[in-house]
Amino acid sequence: MKKKKFGIHLLLGLFMLVLGTSADSNEIIYWSPNYKLDWNDFKGQPRFDHKSVSALTSSGIIHYKGCKDGEITFKVEAYFEKNESWVKDEARTEHHLSHEQIHFDITELAARKLRKSLKERRFECGEEAEFETFVSSYLENWRTEQKAFDLMTRHSLDKEQQEEWFYKISMELSLLEE
């Protein structure tokens, strides 16, 4: 009975999610190797109280879970929020756009690592709390990587470091192609 209730709640939750986001679907970009960010994707209002930040990428990792044949099933995707991402006029350069694309690529890399680990780990139905703890640890690592990127590139000021990160992330993405 517990599994059946979980399945029904999952279906209801996904249905509500689809209904709730259908109007906003044009404001979300899911990572794709065929799409690169454009400054037109940054629709949020710049935060002028953040003096050292010229542009901001709001990206994240969304995960859905269900239960089938005794195992937790899942879907993990990297996304970009247009209305929460912004750029100040002085930063509308290719160099800054590249920096923001790397942030989005780091998000996709974390999503790929999470998917790979979840496939290897496998959780049984009823282990939802353990599943969420596992996912949370990957999300924390992703946030740490994002901060390290900004720290090491000094928010894009260190062009040499940014180029190194570009190649590093590109290589790791190619190694984890699905």
Task: Write a compact overview of the structure shown.
By secondary structure, the protein is an alpha+beta fold. The chain has 4 helices and 5 strands; from the N terminus they run αβββββααα.
Give the total of beta strands: 5
Overall outline:
elongated
What profile does the largest beta sheet have?
3 strands, antiparallel
Helical element count? 4
| Rg from Cα | 18 Å
Number of domain units: 1
Strand order of the largest sheet: 1-4-3
How confident overall, as mean pLDDT?
88
Report the helical percentage: 40-55%
Distance between the termini: 36 Å
Encode the helix/strand succession as letters: HEEEEEHHH
The assigned structural class equals alpha+beta
Q: Unreliable runs, pLDDT <50, ≥5 residues? A: 2-23
What is the beta-strand fraction? 15-25%
Short key terms for the protein model shown above:
5 strands; two-stranded antiparallel ribbon; disordered N terminus; single chain; 51% helix; 4 helices; elongated; alpha+beta; 178 residues; 3-stranded antiparallel β-sheet
Protein described:
The chain has a three-stranded antiparallel β-sheet with strand order 1-4-3. The chain has a two-stranded antiparallel ribbon with strand order 2-5. A hairpin with a 2-residue loop joins strand 3 and strand 4 (71-81). It is elongated. The two termini are 36 Å apart. The protein has one domain (26-175). The protein is built from four helices and five strands; from the N terminus they run αβββββααα. Helix content is 51%, strand content 16%. Helix 2 packs antiparallel against helix 3 and helix 2 runs parallel beside helix 4. The chain is of the alpha+beta class and 178 residues long. Residues 2-23 have low confidence and may be disordered.
